[in-house]
Amino acid sequence: MTAAIVGMLLAALTAGTGSRVLLMTTAVVLGSAYGILLVSGLRLTESLAPPRHAATAIAVFYSLAYAGFAFPVLVQTLSTLWNPVPVLLAGSGLALATMATTFMAWPRDPRRR
User: Fold this and answer.
1) Are 82 and 73 in contact (CB under 8 A)?
2) Burial class, 24, CB count within 10 angstroms (exposed 0-12 / middle 13-18 / buried 19+)
3) At 113, is the pLDDT very low, low, confident or very high (cuts 50, 70, 90)?
């Protein structure tokens, strides 16, 4: 999530400045974030789901993950109504809130999983 947050902040900066160097850096950071989030989320889903519900849990995870991959389209669409900088800042705020919620909900005792 940290890479996604940094990537969206870089994207906001890129949209605000129009820098091509920042664009390349942003693409690498966001691409890496998407890959890391997909793999780590899938592994976590596999580890938490009971074996008989694993296929369903993985299907739900993929559905939500691919819905999240539509974020660039959402940003582009909203950018026709508003400046993309606040849209990207709101996205990074949402990612930060998601990360904070995950940390608060994470079991303290690994045996409680």
Assistant:
1) no
2) exposed
3) low
Residue 60 φ/ψ, nearest 5 degrees: -65, -45
Dist. CA 81–CA 67, nearest whole Å: 21
DSSP assignment, residue 107?
Answer: -
d(CA 34, CA 65): 9
Segment holding 83, helix H or strand E: none
Amino acid 105 reads A
Distance CA 103, CA 15 (A): 30
- CA distances (Å), origin 30, targets 46, 74, 94, 96, 101: 24, 15, 15, 15, 21
Q: With contact defined as beta carbons under 8 Å apart, do 54 and 46 qualify?
A: yes
Instruction: Compute CA distances 11 → 47, 76, 83, 95, 106, whole Å.
Output: 33, 12, 12, 14, 29
Structure tokens at 100: 């904070």
This prediction has a pTM of 0.77
Measured between alpha carbons, how far is 8 from 12 in angstroms, rounded to an integer? Answer: 6
